[in-house]
Amino acid sequence: MNPATWLQRSAACIGAALRARNGLARGERGALFAANTPAYLEALFAIFWAGLAAVPINAKLHAREAQFIVEDSGATLCLVDEEHGGALGAALADRTLIEFGSTAFERLRDADPMPLERVAPDALAWLLYTSGTTGKPKGVMLSHANLATMTMCDFSDVDTVDRDDSIVYAAPISHGAGIYSFAHVLRGARHVVPQSGRFDPPEILALAARHRRVSMFAAPTMVHRLVEHVAASGANCEGIRTIVYGGGPMYQADIPRALDVMGQRFVQIYGQGESPMTITALSRADLADTAHPHYLARLASVGVAQSAVEVAVVGADGEPVATGEVGEVVVAVIAPRGERPPDPAELDALCFAHVARFKRPKRFEFVASLPKNNYGKVLKTDLRARFAGS
Fold this sequence. Notes:
CATH architecture of the largest domain: 3-Layer(aba) Sandwich
Structural class: alpha/beta
Low-confidence stretches: none
Order of helices and strands: HEHEHEHEHEEHEHHEHEHEHEEHHEEHEH
Helix content: 25-40%
Number of strands: 15
Strand content: 15-25%
Largest sheet: 7 strands, mixed
Radius of gyration: 22 Å
Number of domains: 3
CATH class of the largest domain: Alpha Beta
Strand order of the largest sheet: 8-7-9-10-11-12-13
């Protein structure tokens, strides 16, 4: 059975069981709190098939954080793995909790398949909770039309996909990696979940060698680790077709090194919960165009607006601002590598030599380490609160 047929039948059976046996009505919400696993994808697309809305939760969150998301979202069903079910179950005794791999989950697969539940394009499909770097996590309501537009942008601005391709889920399916599943489902491509359930460079390269034409979504820190492993080991990376990177800033020096070590396999995207993966893209061709007079500036950017979106920079009043207008007073917070922090005057001189005046930090603050969340993103709210009055 090919991947598309298998996933379709599984989604139709599990979706039918969720509706008929577990009493979920059209439009209700099902949460997923688990590490990456093939069953995660089955459950996710079963939720869509049945006309329900998915609430994927980052598996690295504390049980209390996950409990908040389940309760805030109004999810009546939680699909979990063994590790996360134990932590969450006691706190959510009033909700249905089904564990992947359990007898209860296997019985879902045994249901008679239901026809696809047709819903309006603006119906809620995915309730994506933000990572909380700028405040309390918020549930972003993504419709089926949002996800369809995102997928079309993927094909037009990021990468092509066909049935001979594979996507490897090296990052959490609950967010970026899972969102990129749609293009591969639409094309009937292969879905590969690493046995380790996490990002491990040797494992990723072994999977790429086996499946060939592999694509993956990765945070910049993951790209750095993979590139350094390939550089140090001399490993063959020919099986990797495309690495889409995003979710945080890529250091300007890292992407030329990645291109030098691994070749033209990279595409950068920029998005946010409210517009997932769809704001801008820096294409493979842009990254390859080293002769362009503004090549280094391009590398430091997040690319150009994607085909199906409009992008504008606006002020506090919501009105577009003029090109070159100065935005917020900039503060650089630095975690020095050595025991002795660098001289602020030297840092200011360095900035003066390389960036526009309005981009230069007004002051420099030094900390032992930068506060980060489970995605590796810097918690800017913590830093703003710490230095607001200084």
